[in-house]
Amino acid sequence: MTLEEAVFVRHSVRRFRSEPLAKEQVEELQARIRMLNENFALHMQLVLNDDMAFSSGMAHYGSFQNVKNYIAVAGQRNTAGCEATLDERVGYATAEMVLLAQMLGLNTCVVGLTFKKTSMVEIDDGEKLELVVAIGYGETSGVQHSMKPATRVAPGYGSAPDWFKRGIDFVMLAPSALNQFKAKFTIDENGRVVAKHRFGFFTKIDLGIFKYFFELGSGREIFRKSMQTLRSSDGV
Q: 17 and 123 share a domain?
């Protein structure tokens, strides 16, 4: 399965089977987490066999069942040398992990609120746990919910070039921490893509997710550089 194929088959799943992740899947996830942690100055962790994170009433209210494995996504609130905010870097890296999991035959759900931090998650001084990604074998593969119109995030969608439209089409298939699409993508007078979040909870994280999906759909690396940790080798 390719990354693009994963975009179209990925749906949020909240109910999982008891089957443990395979050794090969764990190794691939861990390797990608190490890479993203380095590139985006994050502290993501794959947590396995935690019975407590989704045991609260909030989790049951959110219809989560049998979630024992998840990716905890955390990072330093202020990181020197990073152009993008922690929230956006979290979203961008989360998008990559969600699609990798899909390619490995796993299902996921990006969760912003209905979980509780347990002792199995390591949070260093100055770090913030932003979200978790429930991961495992879903009871089903999920379903596609009714899609919001593309003009919700791109008012000029109708007259935009095809590459921009394809990027927005992918955005509309992206996950969201609270299932909302409060972002705006435009092309400025210099032909550059501008993406901004609107007001609301988790909208900055969602913007990072949407930027990843936009790049994948449009075929253009527009945001990745600003999202990464800037190093002295980059000439800054």
A: yes
The side-by-side arrangement of strands in the sheet containing 70-76 is 45-47, 70-76, 127-136, 107-111
Whether residue 108 is found in the same domain as residue 27: yes
**DSSP 8-class letter at 232:** G
Average pLDDT score over residue span 182-211: 94
103 by Cβ neighbours in 10 Å (0-12 / 13-18 / 19+) ranks as: middle
Whether residue 79 is found in the same domain as residue 161: no
Amino acid residing at 23? K
- On whether residue 215 sits in a domain, the answer given is yes
**How far apart are the C-alpha atoms of 75 and 35, rounded to whole Å?**
14
For residue 165, being part of any structural domain is answered with yes
- Asked whether residue 81 carries a pLDDT value surpassing 90, the answer given is no
42-60 tens-digit pLDDT: 999 999 999 888 886 555 4
Comparison of pLDDT for 176 and 110, the residue scoring more:
110
Do the Cβ atoms of 98 and 81 come closer than 8 Å? no
Q: Is there a single domain that holds both residue 11 and residue 84?
A: yes
Residues 130 and 180 reside in one and the same domain:
no
Question: Of 82, 110, 136, which residue constitutes the final position of a domain?
Answer: 136
Q: Cα-flanking dihedrals φ and ψ of residue 173, to 5°?
A: -100, 5
Domain that holds residue 8: 3-136
Strand, helix or coil for residue 213: helix
- Residue 200 CB neighbours (<10 A): 12
| CA 52/CA 50 separation, integer angstroms | 6
